[in-house]
Amino acid sequence: MKTHKVKPFVLLINGPIGAGKTTLASYLKKKLPNKTVFLDMDIIKYFINSFQKNISYHNLTRRVMIDMINSYIAKNINVVISSSWTVVLIKELKIKIGKINYIHLFLKTKLENSIKRARSRKKCRTIRDIKKNCLRYSAPKFKDAIFIDANKKIPAVRKDVMKILKGKII
User: In terms of C-beta density within 10 A (0-12 exposed, 13-18 middle, 19 or more buried), how is residue 164 classed?
Assistant: First the structure.
């Protein structure tokens, strides 16, 4: 009897500040298979020299993240990434790993919702920074992304995501 080796997946979650990337990733931790790790680019970047806003640190963070993903995939471990740098990661992963089994979720949200959510955090950015971040995501160039309306209540967003993942990775 032949055994079919299931290829590990990479689930990329991105969107503007306050879209719910971390909230969704936390929920998925309980729902996805045990052999799944969760990487948050924001946490990793702060481990790298307190993350100075400098392109060399951005590049170093991205390289560390790519190496971590490669290592997990090589060990047949699934990876979920919560990040606003997903585009760069996808390009580099495709180059380094080749064909990867990945799903890219883009959480869309209105500017006023992003501001409200981001301002409710302990460590909050300025409204100017939030607007700038949201503008960058207002016309996403992600051809492979599955767009999720993150303006809905959290349970509705979770339900939408689980419906998408059901046929693909769960």
Answer: middle
Q: Quote the CA–CA distance of 157 and 74 in Å, as a whole number.
A: 31
- What is the rounded distance in angstroms from the CA atom of residue 118 to the CA atom of residue 130? 8
> What are the chain's domains?
9-163 (3.40.50.300)
Q: What is the largest CA-CA distance in the chain?
A: 60
Sheet of strand 9-14: strand arrangement: 36-40, 78-82, 9-14, 101-108, 146-149
pLDDT at 141: 66
For residue 24, what is the DSSP state? H
Residue 132 confidence (pLDDT): 82
What's the pLDDT tens digit per position in 34-90? 788 998 887 787 777 665 666 677 778 888 888 888 889 888 888 898 876 666 666
Q: DSSP readout, 80-97?
A: EEE-S-HHHHHHHHHHHH
